[in-house]
Design a protein that fits this description.
Elements (H helix, E strand, L loop, with lengths): L1 E5 L4 H12 L5 E6 L4 H11 L3 E4 L5 H7 L4 E4 H9 L7 E5 L7 H9 L3 E4 L2 H18 L3 E3 L2 H10 L6 E8 L17 H4 L9 H9 L1 H13 L7 E5 L5 E7 L4 E5 L5 H9 L13 H4 L13 H12 L3 H17 L5 H14 L8 H16 L3
Parallel strand pairs: 1-2, 1-5, 2-3, 3-4, 5-6, 6-7, 8-9
Antiparallel strand pairs: 8-10, 10-11
Helix pairs in contact: 1-11, 4-5, 5-6, 6-10, 6-14, 9-14, 10-13, 13-15, 14-15, 14-16
The structure holds NADP nicotinamide-adenine-dinucleotide phosphate.
């Protein structure tokens, strides 16, 4: 299988390469992209010999071109699309491990090339679900979720979609699950990046702390499994051992359980529909002892509430939500705003940028840019 890996230098990209290393004869990495981590990219080019490489920042491109004369280098948005559509005589799986709405256009173009997508980049469905899902149907491609919750749900539902009464998505609670709203006023970037169960990229770690990530996942599940929002529940589950559950109409609930290790859903997506052995640590149920579940409070996590409301409103509202969130999270990571400013800014943008324009790629891109500019200009 030929692989394109968008966002190869990130947490999901790197773990995808771990799986590829275990199956060198089965995968050929033909194209990869990164934003600015050139040091890691160099190592990847040497180890996996892709034919096409795209990077985010142009000043890095010339030295790379002379170092790797057989590789085609591109940059920016065109480079991402070039990677997603890079020519191949045989089947290609595109792994979208980008962060943020930058993943939308390459996904659309890959689908139009009839390529299956292993999708980690949830923001693509948050902003573009209304465009992506009809395209998936039209071009007859598979959108295989990499997010552990959605991979779990896909594996649980199998072909019994019509028998599902509800989906239950689990949430770890993120870095600040034991802090009061008052205590959140003074948390630092370092505190926020210290997730109790998962080692992930910075942006998703902050989204987990604000619980925006769980809101995004509800929107993602709505599109992936064609489920009305009323049938998607969430529950706080501190151990992150149950990755999600599905209740069927005979009241049976099936749960997907295993150690929190993203290589498991990545392995599943890369070999889908085959279930390929993976030699990760096995879960010892006796050692684990107990599992706990609590209500996920809207009051404690206002961004979770805003995300669900934006999902239900639909149209371009999730685009506003996502753009405001992405830019606020980056401002927080740069130390320019406080943790609680993220929810303030997202709420403000949802009020200011209300629109009932049609969901088209053009309208998404235009609004996304406007919201980002507004947020950037706040500091
Ligand atoms: N990490 C997890 O465990 C996990 C679990 C479930 C779902 N996800 C989802 O998977 C996606 C990736 O997450 P991650 O944690 O792997 O993120 P990450 O570690 O931050 O990696 C993101 C990748 O995208 C590249 N990138 C960043 N901004 C870009 C831009 N504007 N244009 C082009 N490339 C860009 C980065 O390049 P540089 O390295 O050069 O900056 C990197 O290769 C996210 O949507 C996240 O929500 C992640």
């Amino acid at each position: 299988m030929n692989l394109v890996i968008l966002g190869v230098t990130g947490s999901i990209g790197s773990q995808t390469l771990d799986i590829v290393r275990n199956h060198r004869s089965e995968f050929n990495v033909i194209a990869v992209t990164c934003n600015k981590n050139i040091r890691k990219l160099r190592e990847i080019i040497v180890e996996f010999s892709p034919s096409y490489v795209s990077i985010g920042q142009s000043e890095n491109i010339e030295p790379l071109k002379s170092e790797f004369p057989d590789v085609v280098f591109e940059q920016g948005k065109q480079g991402l699309i070039g990677a997603a559509t890079y020519k191949s005589d045989s089947e290609v799986l595109v792994v979208n491990a980008l962060v943020g709405s930058a993943g939308l256009e390459p996904t659309i173009e890959a689908i139009k090339m009839k390529r299956n997508i292993a999708l980690a980049n949830k923001e693509t469905l948050v902003v573009g679900g209304e465009i992506i899902m009809p395209l998936v149907k039209e071009y007859g491609v598979e959108l295989i979720p990499v997010d552990s919750e959605h991979s779990a749900i896909k594996q649980l539902i199998m072909d019994k979609q019509d028998d599902v009464s509800e989906i239950i998505i689990t949430a770890s609670g993120g870095s600040f699950r034991d802090l009061s709203r008052n205590e959140l006023k003074s948390v630092t970037v370092k505190d926020a990046l210290d997730h109790p169960n998962w080692d992930m990229g910075q942006k998703i770690t902050i989204d987990s702390a604000t619980m925006m990530n769980k809101g995004f996942e509800v929107i993602e599940a709505h599109y992936l499994f064609n489920m009305p929002y009323e049938k998607i529940k969430t529950v706080l589950h501190r151990e992150s051992m149950i990755h999600s559950l599905v209740e069927f109409n005979d009241s049976s609930i099936l749960a997907h359980i295993g150690n929190p290790d993203m290589r498991v859903p990545i392995n599943y997506a890369l070999f889908y529909p085959t279930r390929m052995p993976y030699t990760g640590k096995r879960l010892d149920l006796v050692k684990l002892g107990a599992l706990h579940f609590e209500e996920l409070s809207y009051d404690r996590y206002p961004l979770f509430k805003l995300a669900i409301e934006a999902g239900k409103t639909g149209g371009l509202t999730p685009t506003i939500l996502n753009a405001a969130n992405e830019e606020s999270v980056y401002l927080f990571l740069e130390g320019k705003i406080s943790f609680l400013d993220i929810e303030e800014i997202v709420g403000e943008c949802l009020n200011i940028f209300k629109t009932d324009l049609e969901v088209t790629l053009h309208n998404i891109i235009t609004l996304d840019l406007r919201v980002r500019e507004y947020v950037k200009n706040k500091v």
